[in-house]
Specification:
about 270 residues; mainly alpha; 3 domains; 9 helices; about 0% strand; elongated; disordered C terminus
């Protein structure tokens, strides 16, 4: 039964031999009057490891990325899972954990799909910072709206909507994304100034610090995208300069060869 979980090429090549080996081992243990439980447990463990290894080897690049993101999201999910057992009042149901896992997985896949298209470290870092800041802003606002039941806080989602529309209009180009992140930082700062908190002084101070952190993160992401854009322009300019120099050099060689006088062989000069 476990052989069916191996990839088809591996199963067609080694399946019959593995099944024969399993039957031989079972027969040897039965003839020696030894129990089969230990053998079955060992074969199950070894075969399970082999199934994971072979499926990972035969996986496409996208499949490997999805597997890494899924395992990473599961590892991050352990944090709220453990916290729900230790923090009083943290009462999430199973649906809440599934929803959070989907958010983690979606955020990770979005980063993987976008970042793999670009080789510049500044671009990848900008995507990472923007996604982390956007996820944290959306999460904290969702929790705050659920606790306070104040619909005015829904205005914070306009910052995330601005980011989504800006990324779509920019077609994920670094220059357009830099402008989008700067606009998100400015919009969030404007909301923080104009929207009354109605909270006690100590809580209002903490909210102001949190707003400052988010504004700084969006600004840092915009600066990273700007750095990636300038690096891309510099690389393009260097390429054009090198191409122009090569063309000019070959043009000069062509002109020199065209102006060179033709010398007839001595036998034909007479």
């Amino acid at each position: 039964m476990l052989l069916r979980l191996y990839p088809r090429p591996f199963r067609e090549r080694f399946g019959e031999g593995m099944a024969q080996t399993f039957h031989d081992l079972c027969r040897e243990h039965r003839d020696a009057r030894r129990g089969l439980f230990g053998l079955a447990l060992w074969i199950f463990f070894e075969t399970s490891v082999g199934i994971v290894r072979e499926n990972t080897t035969h996986m496409s690049q996208l499949g490997k990325t999805m597997l890494r993101v899924a395992l990473g999201a599961l590892a991050v999910l352990m944090v709220p899972l453990v916290a729900s057992q230790l923090v009083e009042g943290w009462n999430w149901n199973a649906g809440g954990f599934v929803f959070v896992y989907v958010l983690f997985f979606g955020t990770g896949m979005l980063y993987a799909v976008i970042a793999r298209k670009m080789g510049a470290w500044a671009y990848k870092a900008g995507v990472g910072v923007a996604l982390v800041a956007g996820f944290a802003l959306g999460w904290s606002n969702m929790v705050h709206v659920a606790d306070s039941e104040n619909p005015a806080n829904l205005v914070y989602y306009s910052v995330l909507a601005l980011g989504g529309v800006g990324a779509w209009l920019a077609r994920l180009e670094a220059r357009g994304l830099a402008r989008t992140l700067f606009a998100m930082a400015a919009t969030l700062a404007l909301i923080a100034v104009m929207l009354p908190s109605g909270a006690p002084p100590y809580l209002a101070r903490n909210m102001a610090i949190l707003h400052g952190v988010f504004v700084a993160l969006f600004t840092a992401s915009g600066l990273l995208f700007r750095h990636a854009s300038l690096a891309g322009l510099k690389t393009e300019a260097d390429y054009k300069s090198a191409a122009g120099s090569t063309c000019a050099r070959f043009g000069l060689v062509y002109l020199n060869s065209a102006r060179k006088p033709c010398v007839a062989p001595l036998g034909l000069a007479a």
